[in-house]
Amino acid sequence: MPEKNLKQKTLSGLFWSFTDNFVNQGVNFAVGIILARILSPKEFGLIGMITIFITISQSFVDSGFSQALIRKKDCNQADYCTVFYFNLFIGALFYGILFFSAKTISRFFNEPQLEGLVQVLGLVLIINAAGLIQNTILTKHINFKLQTRISVISSVTAGVISIWLAYNGWGVWSLVWRTLIQNFIRILLLWAWNEWKPALLFSRAALSNMFNFGSKLLVSGLIDTTYKSFYYLIIGKFYSASQLGYYTRADNFQMFPSSNLTNVVQRVSYPVLSSIQDDDARLKRSYKKLIKSTMLISFVLLIGMAATAEYFVCALVGEKWLPSVPYLQLLCFVGMLYPLHALNLNMLNVKGRSDLFLRLEVIKKVLAIPVILIGIFIGIEAMLVGMIINSIIAYFLNSFWSGTLINYPVKEQIGDIAPSFIAAIIMGFSVYALGFVLPYSSASVLFFQSTFGLLIIIAIGHIFRLGSYVEIRQMIMDKFQNKQV
């Protein structure tokens, strides 16, 4: 693909992927705030207790085949159909396992309500399995415009219904039906608006070929998913449903910028970088630009959220959620490196090194065992400090191996992102200090802090010609110029 066409395709993909995530997650974020004002922390905690079981099962449903299909340059109908039927089978299988394990799960947490919640919410596995290939094809072709339309419709519809249910006394079930309705509508629209339809084809050879690559990603995904969800299990088991509710709310707030940015960059960069996987010089140039611009956004958003956490929580969900503030502040420093982890691991997949991807996941999660023990025996905040340290160690491991593949060493990578981190720290301290001198309501202080922080970053970027800032500004200008043409 020529350099110019690749740039235009990347810009278009980033624009629509960002729009998709921003609007979709923005709607979910707004709905979550409204629900948090109606429901109690315990009801969010109940959903948090079963998160680990749903997310681990979902990893098996995908089995790493989506990424294998995206990376493969010559996919045919047999490949798509084979993975489609395999996904459906695994989805049904794991729903059955969850259904019959529901009583055991409820006894483990000593929460009788969980049995019915697991049995109903588990249906999302079958629903999602039916749309994995449709979504994979759109991602492979970097068609995020259609995905955006579908996400907006499904998120808004499910959000309105769930708020109505919560207002009318459905409690925790309003959260369950929100998830099921949103995913059902999304899959329904994917089938209605996407041209691909399955045929009666199944190839063992195709399954075996993709399994070589996908199986390692499956195991890696299981390890990572279990690790992230295990904290929900620990808090739910050794603390209370309300404490888990506070943690869940803090984690959801932190994930809004962190997860959105990670998903945008990961969805676009993987198919784009895969298309130039054999040209190391070009791959490195594109990779450097992505890292520099992505991390400026990540540092600014997450450090800014940590600095405004108290007013942020009070203004959005009320003072009853104030115990979640210290969790949110610490989680922001955990989450700000997530996009960087994703980019470095993406490079391993682009280069076909899913074996190395798996090896790194095993090493990193073994190193995380002390963090889990801290959570059990010392406390939640101490556990979060351990998560920050673990995230930094994980970065060095990821960046060393991905950098080796394209001659982009850790020292050079740190040099590229350090100016953005320094700028974000200056902004964060300034915004935090501003909160002490403004005698206004939480919403007003949050507004002034956010505006002040944005002006500081723009000023630093403009005065010091910050490379990442210049790159982002140029990308925005290029996108608007293309629109006008």
Question: What is this entry, summarized?
Answer:
The protein has helices spanning 3-38, 41-62, 65-71, 77-109, 114-121, 124-129, 132-140, 144-167, 173-193, 204-238, 241-274, 280-307, 309-317, 325-335, 338-350, 354-367, 369-377, 380-406, 410-434, 442-463, 467-484.
Mean pLDDT across residues? 83
How far is it from the N-terminal to the C-terminal residue, by CA? Answer: 22 Å
Helix content: over 70%
Proportion of beta-strand residues: under 5%
Major sheet: size, sense and barrel closure? none
Broad shape? globular
Helix/sheet category: mainly alpha
Oligomer: single chain
- The total number of structural domains is 2
What is the succession of H and E elements? HHHHHHHHHHHHHHHHHHHHH
The tally of beta strands, per DSSP, is 0
Key words describing this protein structure:
485 residues, mainly alpha, 2 domains, globular
Report what the structure shows.
Helix 11 (about 240-275) runs antiparallel to helix 12 (about 280-305) and helix 14 (about 325-335) packs parallel to helix 18 (about 380-405). The protein has helices at about 5-40, 40-60, 65-70, 75-110, 115-120, 125-130, 130-140, 145-165, 175-195, 205-240, 240-275, 280-305, 310-315, 325-335, 340-350, 355-365, 370-375, 380-405, 410-435, 440-465, 465-485. It is an all-alpha fold and about 475 residues long. The mean pLDDT is about 85. The longest helix has about 35 residues, at about 5-40. It has 2 domains: about 1-220, no CATH class; about 240-485, no CATH class.
